[in-house]
Amino acid sequence: MKLLKHMFGKKEKSVNSICCSESEFREKLKIERSRTHRNSHEFSLVTFNLKSLQFNVEQTDQMIQKIYSRIRDIDTIGWYDKDKIGIILPYTAAKGANEFAKKIIDSIKENQEESKYSLITYPPEKKVNKEELIKPVLRSMKKNVI
Questions:
Q1: What span, in angstroms and rounded, lies between the C-alpha atoms of 88 and 117?
Q2: Residue 6 lies in a domain
Q3: Whose C-alpha in 76, 113, 126, 137 is 20 to 30 A from the C-alpha of 15?
Q4: What is the DSSP letter of 110?
Q5: Over its length of 146 residues, how does the chain's per-residue pLDDT go in tens digits?
Q6: Residue 3 within any structural domain of the chain
Q7: Rounded Cα distance, 104 and 67, in Å
Q8: Does residue 109 sit within a domain?
Q9: What's residue 131's pLDDT?
Q10: Measured distance CA(20)–CA(13) in Å, rounded
Q11: pTM of the predicted model, to two decimals?
């Protein structure tokens, strides 16, 4: 069992190697958006505002480590801007991303009431016009009429 954990488990890494810089994170976000258009899947972006949490450097590092311990290999963590940590969650709908964010907040018990996050799912849900859904059905029905 130890061998499997050693081979496949996440190793303890420094925060600098875990967390992308703001420019790297923006580039990875752009790549994921392009991938989404190509493959027609969705992804979610969760951001935590560290300024509102009034975290010092040590608390910020601990939070990044907690997030890292809960993300998948395909997820990306990085600085969204100077006050926000972002996590890109490919193939994750809003419901799953919301559950993920709540687990992170639960792990920060001492600041739980103040902890807030933002969640964006891409592509955004489209408002569907009911008439547009009916038109193709009507067209196909007309073709079958003799």
A1: 13
A2: no
A3: 113
A4: G
A5: 455 445 455 555 666 678 999 999 999 999 999 999 898 889 999 999 887 777 788 888 888 898 999 999 999 999 999 889 999 999 999 999 999 998 888 887 665 455 678 999 998 764 434 444 344 433 433 443 44
A6: no
A7: 7
A8: yes
A9: 44
A10: 13
A11: 0.73
Q: What pLDDT was estimated at residue 49?
A: 86
Q: Where are the alpha helices (DSSP H) in the chain?
A: 2-8, 15-18, 22-39, 50-53, 57-70, 94-106, 130-144
- Among residues 49, 70, 69, which one has the least CA distance to residue 60? 49
Handedness of CA 11, 31, 116, 19 (dihedral sign): positive
Instruction: Please give the residue range of the domain that contains residue 124.
Output: 13-144
Please tell me the total count of domains within the chain. Answer: 1
Give the CATH number for residue 44.
Answer: 3.30.70.270
Structure tokens at 124: 């955004």
Q: How many CB atoms lie under 10 A from the CB of residue 135?
A: 10
- Return the residue matching tokens 């073709």: 143
Altogether, the residues listed in the chain come to a count of 146
Which DSSP helix (H) or strand (E) runs through 121?
strand 117-122
- Is position 2 within any domain? no
